[in-house]
Amino acid sequence: MLNRSSVLVAFLAIVLLLAIAPSGAQAQCDNPKTSAQRAQCVGDELRGADRTINRVYGDLMKSLTPADRVTLRTDQRAWIKMRDENCGLTWSKGDREAWLADLLKDYQKTVCVVRLTNDRVQALYGYQKSNAIVAPAAPAAGSDSTPVYDLFTHEPQTKGKWYFEVKVDEPAIQKLAEATFSTGVLQAVADEAATNERGGSYGSLITIRRIDKNVEIYTLGYAIDLDNGKLYTSMNGQWDEGAPGSSGGLDLIRGRAYKGELSSSVSINPFLSAHMLDVNFGDRAFAYHLPDGYSPLQPH
After folding, report:
1. Which stretches within the chain are classed as H helix?
2. Topology at the third CATH level for domain 12-125
3. Which architecture does CATH list for 150-296?
4. d(CA 164, CA 175)
5. What is the pTM of this model?
6. pLDDT tens, residue order, the chain (300 aa)
């Protein structure tokens, strides 16, 4: 087993352990060894962002005049509505812990919420008593500086066997920024009638922190068997939870359309340009052997 000090490759069984992970235990996130520890670390990532925005918002409200508080409260409610719409959130129950646990069932939504929450915290830091939010001017459309947070394959697939890879240079990324990535497959169209315990995305959640040690460069592989409803994952060519064709892996819903995806909590532009992050949907040779019977998910 490879030492993955800061990579939290949390699959379905791990996420479901959130319900039984000891809430008072200190997660060993510098080197998680058990499914429960990995689950706790994944939850801590989201809960940390949630605690930060609540603290910053509360402190700011105390410093404002009554009139400015009304303006900020209205602005915050508008942001929450925007966050929910952009991240596809439908949970409306009041219990905060239940809301977080439900959100953690879908990696792509988790990354989206962390991203927008971090952006909102920065906006709140720049909030003036005039109620004007200081934000950088949006770059011109199509320019190289336009932030990119998500990568998807062009055409969804409903049948067949497909493969793609994601290479992560964690030491280089760690020096540049803290980031959380969701990689794997995503249902192309939300299908409420086929809602499952995992939500719409399947794959891996990767959390990179600057304080971690023993980091490494690795390649994640995804073998998608839509004929039999399976997703198999590997690291550096070693299959986790079963090789393609086995009874292992994650269960997909047969008959649904899926896309390959990578979502990030921060802009991936610098990672891509410096080759710290390389998403290969199939437009060039793969680092590892293409599984027998599988084709590139998005050939050139």
Report:
1. 12-16, 35-63, 66-87, 96-103, 107-125, 170-176, 269-273
2. Substrate Binding Domain Of Dnak; Chain:A; Domain 2 (1.20.1270)
3. Sandwich (2.60)
4. 26
5. 0.71
6. 333 433 333 332 223 222 323 333 344 555 545 445 555 666 777 788 788 888 888 888 888 888 888 988 999 999 999 988 888 887 666 677 777 777 777 778 888 888 888 888 888 887 754 444 444 444 433 345 688 999 999 899 999 999 999 999 999 998 888 888 889 998 887 655 444 444 567 888 787 877 656 678 999 999 999 999 999 999 999 998 899 999 998 889 888 899 999 999 889 999 999 999 999 999 999 999 999 999 999 876
